[in-house]
Amino acid sequence: MAKLVVKQVRSKINCPLTQKRGLEALGLRKMGQTVEHDSNPAILGMINKVKHLVSVEEVK
Fold first, then answer.
1. Local confidence band at 1 (pLDDT 50, 70, 90 cut-offs)
2. Which residue spans traverse the membrane (predicted)?
3. What angle do helix axes 41-49 and 17-26 make, rounded to 10 degrees?
């Protein structure tokens, strides 16, 4: 299973509540923070919801 490195690159100010909760569910609390997750449908759905706020890289 592939790993994904997710980094928050834009602020969550003025975002809808669902997107703020999506960032927190991913483990991102502040700008520039990086987290690593397994690639599964649930994580990919959360990333898709906030794709304009994060950058994603695949790690092998």
1. confident
2. none
3. 140
